[in-house]
Amino acid sequence: MNAVCVLKVALVMSGYVHKIFSESCTPKLEKSLLEDLRSMTLKIQRGTEEGMNQPDENFSAFAASLTASKTLGSGEIIKFNKVWTNIDNDYNPRTGIYTAPKQGVYHFSCSVMSQYDKTLRVFLCKNSSRIVAVFTGYSDTNMATLNMVLALKKGDTVYIKQDGPQKYIF
């Protein structure tokens, strides 16, 4: 089985309006949200049209997979060996570490699967600190997914790391 473990990152580059509300949408709020969405869509369209023939220096993204089952060592950083996309080469497949090229807001997503009747626990780490963990459990499916948005500074590192006795990645 190919690509089971996937990690991707995208730098959120366009400005946006963030609204938090605890009540149901009123017509006024709904109209405001639709206006914000329309405004963001126009900005994206304009940016796409203006930048069609020139690379965006501020864009960083990668998608990578692990292509074979493996028993991970204690505290091992997962090195995704199949790199599908690596714009600006900010992900290093030899180390398994992504380095932020600039300050910004980044989105990370990772899906993992463990071998049948085995478990796996991995952490998303930022600069050696554990941020969030996923555990595949003991079900027949043995899958888990994490999603996290992080504010990073230039040079911050992010990676997926195994921890604990749960170490069988499929």
Automatic annotation (TrEMBL):
Signal sequence coordinates: none
Pfam families the record matches: C1q
Keywords: Secreted, Signal
Highest taxon in the source lineage: Eukaryota
SUPFAM superfamilies: TNF-like
InterPro entries in alphabetical order: C1q_dom, Cerebellin_Synaptic_Org, Tumour_necrosis_fac-like_dom
Annotated ranges, domain C1q: 55-170
Record's GO cellular component terms: extracellular region
Major location category of this protein: secreted
Location(s), subcellular: Secreted
Protein name as it appears in the record: C1q domain-containing protein
